[in-house]
Structure formats: structure tokens, C-alpha cells
DNA sequence: CCATGATCGACAACCAGGTTTACTATATGG
DNA sequence: CCATATAGTAAACCTGGTTGTCGATCATGG
């Protein structure tokens, strides 16, 4: 019964693994010319997605205010990752869509995540990796698609 | 071979589990009167530890500049979590140590992490949990004690 | 013994990314 | 037709990073 490791070892290992995958993605992105993207931007690009979004919707997905989402969109627009166009059906809305550069980020991220998963399958063997995924799913049921890490981590409140 | 889930599912599950543990800790901390602590502070308290530290050392552990560490220390001092005392052996240094309130945060965090681990052992069974820990250790060898999440997540360079 | 260089902590100016409050313009439903 | 709700923007502010600079203190080599 004696657990020699301190209690925060498991959370730290979870975070380390998450971080290793994200670092791999951003290493690849940096090599592909996307130098200035930070880990947090991964959540933003996922939240925008190939279908596009709006400032309010993005804010809700990221767990931040619509104003913060608007600032993020403006910054990504300056960097050429998204473009805004008026919504033909609602003059209040501005549709935010990924440019080719933005889609490149999303595509490369997906490929690198897949590559990392393949490496992990190589290390553990496919069975243990699938078991690990299933166990994680049991521990955090339903929480998969939450992208509100920016609001979660920041100072806010 | 066909993996239907998108590649970022596994990293997201890792992050979700990490986050569930940290949220449990901060829920308990909030109930114990430590209302305003953010997830990031967990790393700071761990980096200070029961043995204390200095601004330079804390900056190195957290992966931020010594100035940022100094600001963090000043903020925690205002909130009563740490106290500074001149180092008798080196008049340049100021020893930073946790107050009783700071030690309370550390103790409660450890207890809550242990409680979460026990809950997870209950969900998966002890064998699967230990296997999960071992697998995570295989995936991220040696990366356990890195506490530089603040610098990793933030905007910086 | 002291001059030089390294180190520690602080301050200032700045930046990124959050917040709240307030506002305009546009939809929408009674 | 008007009242209300919603989308986006702007301003002022906060936190927590950054770099550059600086005075004070230690450590070392001549």
C-alpha cells in the first residue's frame, strides 16, 4: 500500500505527456515557418476549425469573453492565419475563416499528433496504448472536446 | 488499423485528466479559503516547496525570468503565502519561505491529489492505474519534475 | 588588499492576453 | 413598430510575462 511517490506525480506525468505531444507539434510548425505560434494557439486553431466561426462562438469555445476572442482573431488576422468576411445573412456577424496558412497549421498539427501517437504505439505497443486511451476516457468521461484551456490557465477572475 | 478519432484526442484526454486533478485541488483550496489561487499557482507553490527558495532559483524552476519570479513572490507575499527574510550568509539574497498559509496550500494539495488518485484507483482498479502510471513514465522518461509550465504556456517569445 | 567580474534583487517600460463596462448596429418577436 | 436581444468594437484596467538597467554584495585573481 505504501505509495512512495508524492501525490502530484501522476498529474505531472499526464501533463508531461500532453506537453511532449504539443511540443512536437510546435517544433514541426516552427520548422514549417510558423515560428511565433504558442501552445495556447493550438486550442484557438482547433476552436476555429475548418468550418469557421465568429467572435462570440469562439469566445464560448475557448472559455473567454467575446472581447478577448475578438482580440485573438484580430491578432491572427494580422499574422495572416484567418480572414474575416461579412455574413450575408446577418450584417452583425463577421464570419472568421482560416486562410491557407491557417489550414496548413491545422493539417500539420493533425499529422504531427498522429506521428506522436504512432511513436507512442511503437514504445508501448498498440495494445497498451489503446488501453491507456480507454483508461483515460474512463477517468474523464465526456470531457474530451473542451477547448477552454486559455481561460482555464490564465489569471482571470 | 483505422483510427476513427482525430489525432488530438489522446493529448486532449491527457490534458483533461491533468485538469480534472488540478480542478479538484483548487475546488478544495477554494473551500478552505484559498479562493483566488489559480491553476498556475500550483506550480509556484511546488517550486517554492517546504525548503524555501530565492527569486533567481524560483525563476529557473518555473522557466521564467528572475524578474517575473520576483513579481510572483511579491504578489504571494501580499497575499500572505510567503515571507522574505535576509539571508544571514549572503546579504544579496532574500530567503523566500512559505508561511503557515502557504504550507496549508501545499498540504491540502498533496492530500487532494492523493484523494483523486484513490478515486481513480477505484474507477480503474489498482492494477490498471499502476499500469497507466508506468506507461506514462515510459512515454515521458525523466520529465517528471519539470515545473516550468508558467513559462511554457504564456505568450513569451 | 583590492580591483574586477559575477550574482542577487529591484525598478522601469513594455507587451500579450485576459477582464468589465459601455456603446453602435442589426435582428427578431410581440 | 417598438422592445429586447445579439454581434462586434472600444476603452480602461489587471496579471504576468519580457528586456534593459542598476546598486549592492560576494568571490576571485593579481
TrEMBL record, chains A, B:
BP GO annotations: response to stress
PROSITE patterns linked to this entry? HTH_MARR_2
Q: Residue ranges of the HTH marR-type domain? A: 1-141
* Pfam families cross-referenced by the UniProt entry: MarR_2 (PF12802)
One MF term from GO for this chain? DNA-binding transcription factor activity
The name on file for this protein is MarR family protein
Q: Which organism is it from?
A: Glycomyces sambucus
